[in-house]
Design the sequence.
């Protein structure tokens, strides 16, 4: 029928446009992937998430998708190779000048690809697997770290240095960190650990789980978290805390409402008054370096140790004058107590309230 | 021959026969919420016939089974026993499409989710004649326009359905039924929402259409005088039982009507020769 | 009296296709990386001729590899959601129906979450791992479709009001389970879930999944289109439709399954993008009327256009960071919804 003929031709024309687009998209994907030439020399390494990653040397252009990794790169002195980082990479100040690729959870793939990185660094706990898969499909290698203890932070830093082709910096930094940690261990050997509550968020009350690196950091500082939970960021019942009566409340600055200036309101909050630690104002405030699995955490640990066990540090003033010069690369380990001038907003849709 | 006339030829042939078109044979029905329980409602076996050009009224008080009987005639329900024949075909066993080409149901009101124009509404009546993905043809448009003309609603063609009066809406709904070019026209309480003038208009139109187009019309109603005035045959129902079937004069007996409608009334011959019922006040 | 003809239908579709084309070109141009239209055109032609290795610049590769697939994904997802929304509004005889009202998106979200939770515990090969979450999402969607179908039946056939109730209850029940899991599973890769629940097009789709999505869309949307005139009659009421020759149970079943499949596919790959399935049908109805033979293709184009625009805004407004596309559709959709409501009752 005439109508049916007229039906066929325009229909074909109408769908042709859509098919064209679809075909374009699929043809492109089937051809060889863009990016670095994979046939040149590269070695396979296994990252801390168990993935096998092929890395070609030299690694000249690095993109970091986590603030802790950015800090680590600066600590290793490799910041010249860092071409891009996230909006939240704010330490040191120089990191804020690098090209931004978006958030840690929602980085802009185009921006990352435009920087033509040789390697992208991610963490298993902060970044999304989808991001890593997307980078894989574009032929951009991504290496994941996943430290759960302070020791692992140190060894992870060392491994990272080796992968980036600067093993000496890694060894030197690791040695320095271990020196500080063993020194601390010696000093605290005689003091029993203080029972503390690490307050991530006050309302609702959220603390840290026993398997996190933060919990391990507390242990190294001569403290022990009263929260015994397998979850990462458990919500804790205030009644339980009152029953356990921690000796100290520990806060990390850089967290909006639980920053140093707001501690004064705690004695007036209902329920909190029942805590001895609140009535006697036994608060320990440390920098938010404790929230990031980076070398700087060691300084936060030391700082916490001083606040919780002042008796172990009495002779420290004299000793410090005779210690050798700290190498410039680890200048970042100096304690940094002052609250950050610009405290970043942390998006509320992240499952973990803290960036690290 | 014009398109219009050509389209009507085959249906005309069917209608022109003076044999019984609609044949209800010992049809009964039972409805129960739970198969194990006794039925909540029963329609006892009833039989009657209707010819082309005839108007048949199903009369009775509420809950007497009028609508159920109508649905059985429409083929929407399957009878428990007996069968409904339309020109020899069992209505229930026809496919919905074929059934819609022969039987048109006029509802009381039409609640369209998104209002449409009157002509769109009437064009829906052509749906049974199309293939799944077809567009309306010129012939369909002519038939639809013709249908509107036959009910005197051509001027409403471009109006939105939710902006016309109840009586006008009823006419458009009737036009849609006519567009189906049916043999059988079924109406379920069509005068319920109409004022007296519109009621008379509608029934006049039905009588005229039945005569002109040779439809068989079945009207469900509880309006005694309208049924008496316009129906050629009346089926009187009470609680699922057909008490009497026949022309109004034979059905409208005072004792019978009083028993069925539970009220005092008087029956007298009206000016047209058909019975007139007067309700007497007080019980 | 001017009924819809094929000619008018195709003309309008061509106009909508032209609008979509313009939107796509603009979307290809905007982004974190600058693009010239000339270079873009040249690259597209090269790709179509199969000479992809000769692409002009790095930036060209970025656009073809990252931006174009994302736009195409947005087109198919937007079209799927709008067609599904139009179908559900007709099926359930409810202008407030959207693709998620029957719980399909909650089921898909739950399936995705369970897949995310289970993944570390199962030994999965890397290629399959990428498919695991969308597969889990689709299985969740399929299970919900089946469950709501069986709950929504009355005397063996789909009854629209029972279906609506069954769907709403399932949706809220599944949402409760999802919230429970999210609360107790804090610390795992749950960040992604928040994005997914809001709707997110930033994850490039696997090759195999693209074909599944494309074919699925064509098949399901095609199936719905065959019932387009029936749907017109269904709007008047199921009884009336039946008396006009519509095989109501068959139409219900076909539309229910096809629209749910469309929703399940869309949600499995991009999360629950909101407002598109609800509002695009109304806007298109406002422009083109409620004849489904025109409305369904119009909704498909309209949804594609809406999602591509929303996604382009989502990735440029706070560059280089990105918003989930569901945020943009919500921000635009809510005021638009209020406006349409007021017009309706003005």
Sequence:
């Amino acid at each position: 029928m005439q109508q049916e003929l007229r039906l066929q031709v325009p229909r074909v024309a109408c769908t042709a446009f859509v098919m064209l687009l679809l075909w374009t998209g699929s043809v492109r994907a089937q051809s060889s992937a863009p990016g670095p030439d994979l046939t040149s020399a590269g070695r396979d390494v296994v990252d801390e998430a168990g993935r096998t990653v092929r890395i070609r040397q030299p690694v000249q252009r690095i993109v970091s998708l986590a603030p802790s990794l950015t800090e680590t790169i600066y600590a290793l002195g490799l910041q010249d190779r860092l071409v891009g980082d996230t909006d939240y990479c704010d330490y040191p100040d120089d990191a804020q000048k690098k090209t931004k690729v978006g958030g840690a959870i929602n980085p802009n793939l185009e921006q990352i690809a435009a920087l033509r990185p040789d390697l992208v660094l991610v963490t298993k706990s902060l970044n999304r697997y989808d991001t890593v898969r997307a980078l894989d499909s574009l032929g951009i290698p991504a290496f994941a770290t996943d430290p759960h203890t302070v020791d692992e932070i140190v060894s992870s830093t060392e491994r990272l240095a080796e992968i980036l082709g600067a093993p000496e910096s890694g060894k030197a930094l690791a040695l320095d960190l271990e020196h500080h940690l063993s020194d601390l261990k010696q000093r605290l050997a005689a003091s029993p650990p203080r029972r503390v509550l690490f307050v991530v968020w006050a309302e609702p009350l959220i603390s840290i789980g026993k398997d996190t690196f933060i919990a391990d950091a507390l242990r190294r500082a001569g403290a022990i978290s009263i929260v015994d939970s397998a979850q990462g960021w458990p919500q804790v019942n205030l009644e339980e805390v009152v029953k356990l009566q921690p000796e100290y409340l520990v806060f990390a600055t850089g967290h909006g409402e639980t920053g140093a200036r707001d501690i004064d309101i705690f004695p007036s909050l209902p329920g909190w008054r029942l805590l001895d630690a609140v009535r006697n104002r036994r608060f320990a405030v440390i920098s938010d370096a404790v929230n990031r699995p980076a070398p700087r955490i060691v300084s936060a640990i030391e700082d916490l140790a001083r606040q919780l066990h002042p008796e172990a540090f009495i002779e420290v003033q004299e000793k410090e004058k005779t210690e050798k010069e700290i190498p410039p690369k680890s200048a970042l380990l100096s304690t940094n107590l002052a609250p950050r001038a610009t405290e970043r907003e942390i998006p509320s849709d992240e499952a973990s309230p803290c960036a690290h | 021959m014009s398109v219009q006339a050509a389209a009507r030829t085959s249906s005309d042939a069917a209608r022109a026969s003076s044999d019984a078109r609609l044949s209800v044979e010992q049809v009964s029905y039972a409805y129960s919420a739970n198969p194990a329980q006794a039925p909540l409602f029963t329609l006892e076996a009833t039989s009657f016939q209707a010819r082309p050009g005839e108007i048949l009224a199903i009369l009775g008080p509420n809950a007497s089974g009028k609508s159920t009987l109508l649905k059985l005639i429409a083929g929407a329900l399957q009878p428990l026993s007996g069968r409904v024949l339309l020109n020899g075909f069992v209505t229930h066993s026809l496919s919905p499409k074929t059934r819609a080409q022969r039987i048109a149901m006029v509802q009381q009101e039409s609640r369209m989710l998104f209002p449409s124009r009157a002509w769109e509404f009437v064009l829906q009546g052509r749906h049974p004649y199309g293939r799944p993905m077809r567009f309306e043809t010129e012939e369909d448009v002519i038939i639809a326009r013709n249908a509107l003309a036959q009910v005197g609603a051509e001027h409403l063609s471009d109006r939105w359905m939710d902006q016309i009066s109840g009586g006008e809406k009823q006419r458009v709904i009737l036009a849609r039924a006519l567009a189906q070019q049916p043999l059988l026209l079924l109406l379920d309480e069509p005068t319920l929402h109409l004022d007296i003038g519109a009621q008379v208009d509608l029934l006049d139109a039905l009588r005229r259409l039945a005569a002109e187009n040779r439809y068989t019309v079945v009207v469900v109603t509880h309006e005694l005088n309208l049924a008496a005035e316009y129906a050629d045959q009346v089926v009187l129902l009470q609680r699922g039982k057909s008490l009497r079937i026949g022309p109004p004069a034979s059905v409208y007996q005072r004792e019978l009507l009083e028993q069925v409608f539970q009220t005092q009334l008087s029956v007298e011959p009206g000016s047209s020769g058909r019975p007139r019922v007067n309700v007497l006040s007080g019980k | 009296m001017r009924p819809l003809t094929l000619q008018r239908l195709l003309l309008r579709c061509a106009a909508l296709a032209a609008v979509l084309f313009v939107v796509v070109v603009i979307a290809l141009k905007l982004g974190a990386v600058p693009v010239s239209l000339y270079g873009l055109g040249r690259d597209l032609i090269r790709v179509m001729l199969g000479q992809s290795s000769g692409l002009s610049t790095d930036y060209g590769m970025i656009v073809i590899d990252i931006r174009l697939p994302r736009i195409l994904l947005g087109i198919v997802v937007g079209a799927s959601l709008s067609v599904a929304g139009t179908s559900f509004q007709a099926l359930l005889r409810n202008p407030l129906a959207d693709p998620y009202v029957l719980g399909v998106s909650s089921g898909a979200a739950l399936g995705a979450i369970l897949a995310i939770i289970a993944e570390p515990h199962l030994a999965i090969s890397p290629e399959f791992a990428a498919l695991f979450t969308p597969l889990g999402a689709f299985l969740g969607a399929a299970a919900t479709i089946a469950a709501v179908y069986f709950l929504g039946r009355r005397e063996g056939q789909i009854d629209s009001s029972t279906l609506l109730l069954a769907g709403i209850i399932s949706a809220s029940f599944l949402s409760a389970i999802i919230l429970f899991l999210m609360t107790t599973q804090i610390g795992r890769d749950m960040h992604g879930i928040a994005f997914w629940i809001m709707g997110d097009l930033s994850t490039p789709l696997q090759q195999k999944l693209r074909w599944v999505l494309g074919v699925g869309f064509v098949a399901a949307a095609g199936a719905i289109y065959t019932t387009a005139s029936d749907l017109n009659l269904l709007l008047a009421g199921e009884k009336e439709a039946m008396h006009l020759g519509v095989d109501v149970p068959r139409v219900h079943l076909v539309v229910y399954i096809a629209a749910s499949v469309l929703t399940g596919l869309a949600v499995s790959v991009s999360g629950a993008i909101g407002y598109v399935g609800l509002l695009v049908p109304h806007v298109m109805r406002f422009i083109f009327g409620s004849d489904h033979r025109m409305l369904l293709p119009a909704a498909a184009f309209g949804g594609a256009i809406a999602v591509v625009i929303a996604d382009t805004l989502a990735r440029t407004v706070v560059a280089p960071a990105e918003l989930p596309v569901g945020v943009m559709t919500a921000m635009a959709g809510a005021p638009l919804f209020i406006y349409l409501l007021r017009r309706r009752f003005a």
Confidence is low (pLDDT under 50) at residues 1-10, 27-39, 255-260, 325-356 of chain A. The longest strand of chain A covers residues 194-199. Residues 2-30 of chain A form the longest helix (29 residues). Residues 113 and 132 of chain A are 13 Å apart (CA to CA).
